[in-house]
Write a structure and sequence with these properties.
Keywords: Signal. The chain has helices spanning 2-10, 38-54, 66-69, 98-105, 133-150, 172-183, 194-197, 217-231; strands spanning 18-19, 24-25, 60-64, 88-90, 117-121, 155-159, 189-191. It is α/β, with parallel strands linked by helices. The chain has one domain: SGNH hydrolase (Rossmann fold, 3-Layer(aba) Sandwich), CATH 3.40.50. It has a five-stranded parallel beta sheet with strand order 4-3-5-6-7, sandwiched between helices. It has a two-stranded antiparallel ribbon with strand order 1-2. The N and C termini lie far apart (43 Å).
Length: 233
């Protein structure tokens, strides 16, 4: 019943965000419920909300989509060198786009936790549609605004959009443009994953699943190897 009520409230969507530098209404920067299987997505949101409300001391929070969500699969966080022994809270949900993350952050009791660091990896699902690079950056900007407002003392680390698809060329120009815009920010630490994952335009390194999007365990080890120095672990 609670999930159904939340879904009904979610339909009362906020007015679209206007980002003048993108030339009009920016869907990617307007909080929204996921369009695919909203009841399941809402149940996932409720589970995350309960985790945040009950969280003990948290060292680092992870925010993002399926790549981020599966980072903690199989108790991986407890085994990663440097992260083992720290308390990590994963708020990511598979399939999320920037607008879905915004909707969730607006409805989580973020004041309950006080992480020293936050890690954001989001945007690859926005590449599937017609969002421009400017749109995606506007969405990420909005997320970063939420994170800085909720945890002003936290260090925020942003991982750029990973290479993906055939020959690692999927939405190449948009991906490069988004990552370049993020790299230019001075209020975050930025991790560009391109060189670490492009592997000569193949999957010979064994980082990706067959869909050339989601990561295998070796891919997460590689991701951690470039993220860890930015976290100082």
């Amino acid at each position: 019943m609670k999930v159904a009520c939340l879904f009904a409230l979610a339909l009362l969507a906020p007015l679209p965000v206007l980002a003048q530098h993108c030339g009009g209404t920016v869907r990617a920067a307007t909080p929204a419920v996921a369009r695919k299987d909203p009841p399941k997505w809402m149940a996932q949101h409720e589970a995350i909300r309960a985790k945040v409300a009950a969280a003990p001391k948290v060292d680092v929070v992870f925010v993002g989509d399926s790549i981020t969500a599966h980072f903690s699969d199989d108790d991986r966080f407890a085994r990663l060198p440097g992260l083992a022994g720290r308390t990590a809270l994963n708020l990511a949900v598979p399939g999320d786009q920037t607008e879905n993350v915004l909707w969730r952050l607006d409805r989580l009791p973020l004041e309950k936790v006080h992480p020293a660091q936050a890690v954001l990896l989001i945007g690859t699902n926005n590449l599937r549609g017609d969002d421009t690079a400017c749109d995606i950056v506007a969405g990420i900007d909005a997320i970063l605004g939420r994170l800085h407002a909720a945890w002003p003392e936290a260090q925020v680390v942003v991982i750029g959009i990973l290479p993906r698809g055939k020959d690692m060329q999927f939405a190449l120009e948009r991906r490069r443009a988004v990552n370049a815009a993020l790299a230019a920010r001075t209020d975050i630490r930025f991790v560009d994953p391109t060189e670490a994952f492009v592997c000569g335009g193949t999957n010979a390194c064994g980082y990706y699943q067959d869909d050339l999007l989601h990561l295998l365990p070796a891919g997460y080890e590689r991701l951690w190897s470039i993220l860890r120095p930015q976290l100082g672990y």
